[in-house]
Please model this.
Amino acid sequence: MNTRKISQVLAGLSLACALGATAPVQAEAQAQADASLFHDLGGLPVIRQTVHDFMVAMLADPRIRHTFDGANLKRVEDKLVEQFCMLSGGGCDYTGDPMKEVHQGLKLTNADFNALVEDLQLAMDKNGIASRTQNRLLALLAPMQRDTVTR
Model:
């Protein structure tokens, strides 16, 4: 991993930790009011491709691929697209289960969460999403850490 990438990861993780106390409802309301993030992400086609690349990266990542054992991968991918679209102000509805419920029993750690963030940043880089735009999305996803990390 090069210095630029390490800096991006650290910036994203710092942002995630700093915003961890923000209420998810506030983040969702703010995102829905600002559809510019959806546009800056490239709209639904780029979000779909980014999520696909994200899934490929996570399933290849030896640090976290085991967390998807037995999961309906098509459903996971579809729900991530919905979630990213909704959070970025794209007008989509997230129809998945609450994050706490989905991740209950997985015993995820902060290291697992950090690996996921790294994989997401790689997917966003691959799809030409600017670092500033990546950080805006990460800021909206960061509050979910407390609902997914259980140990």
Summary: The chain is about 70% helix and 0% strand. The chain has one domain: 3-148. The CA atoms of residues 75 and 96 lie 9 Å apart. The radius of gyration is 14 Å.
